[in-house]
Design a protein that fits this description.
This protein has 249 residues and is of the alpha+beta class. It is built from four helices and twelve strands; from the N terminus they run ααββββββααββββββ.
Length: 249
């Protein structure tokens, strides 16, 4: 748990999607094909322009186990965002189960299986909260880059990016893009009609067994009504309160 003496929450979910935040070109010369960059930035721009939204997706983590066999573990994920100061995420799967609430004042993480939670006084905006979480708590929630109001880390980590071609994801025609970075290769499928992300696949090429992470988004709702109650944490019956481990500077 992302509480004392644990770091499981720094998982493929947050690490891989945070990779999207480095997904554009350097100011002087772009390593990304113009068509690929244009499509990617349209999707990220559409997302950061949304005042509120909900998203649902299906996750898979494929990794090598003893003997060399590759095993795939599945999960589902949900997220709700209301800018500039509210988010909620939930993940349910074979490897982990948990949820996060941020209400503009406090960030809370609940580990469902252990029925244990921790709360932390947070800054007044989502972007500041995510920055300080990474610095002070040493982890980020799932889909972290999709929660941000702006993508301040864009245009710095991509080594190459190409437009692959047309593909179909859950019956929707998309543009498939492929990118390389020092430690990962990743692909993204973006809806050709509405510029939203439909699928992301990440390969961790520097890790033993080259594990693979994938998320397919099953639903985006940019007209969601999200009252304050969505982002307000209420401890489940019998839940134990614990403390976050603060990263030593």
């Amino acid at each position: 748990m992302p509480l004392k003496k644990s770091r499981w929450f720094v998982s493929a979910v947050c690490i891989s999607l945070v990779a999207l935040s480095g997904a554009a070109r350097a100011e002087d010369k772009s390593p990304i094909e113009p068509r690929a960059e244009r499509i990617l930035m349209a999707a990220l721009g559409n997302l950061t322009a949304a005042k509120s939204y909900m998203a649902r997706g299906e996750l898979s983590n494929e990794m090598q186990v003893a003997g060399g066999q590759r095993i795939e573990y599945s999960s589902t994920i949900q997220a709700a965002v209301r800018r500039p100061d509210r988010f909620w995420t939930r993940i349910d799967g074979q490897l982990r189960q948990g949820a996060n609430w941020y209400d503009g004042k406090t960030f809370t993480h609940l580990e469902t299986g252990a029925n244990a939670y921790a709360s932390w006084p947070a800054p007044s905006t989502t972007d500041e909260t995510l920055d300080m979480m990474k610095e002070k708590l040493g982890f980020l929630p799932p889909l972290a880059v999709l929660l941000r109001d702006k993508d301040k880390d864009a245009r710095k980590n991509i080594q190459s990016g190409i437009y692959v071609g047309k593909a179909v994801v859950r019956g929707i025609t998309c543009s498939q893009l492929a990118f390389t970075q020092e430690k990962i290769d990743w692909q993204v499928w973006i809806d050709d009609v509405i510029p939203v992300i439909r699928r992301v696949v990440i390969t961790y090429k520097k890790l033993p067994g080259t594990p693979r992470f994938a998320v397919t988004f099953t639903d985006w709702d940019f007209n969601a009504t999200l009252p304050d109650s969505v982002f307000a944490f209420e401890p489940p019956p019998g839940a134990t309160r614990v403390e976050f481990e603060i990263v030593k500077q």
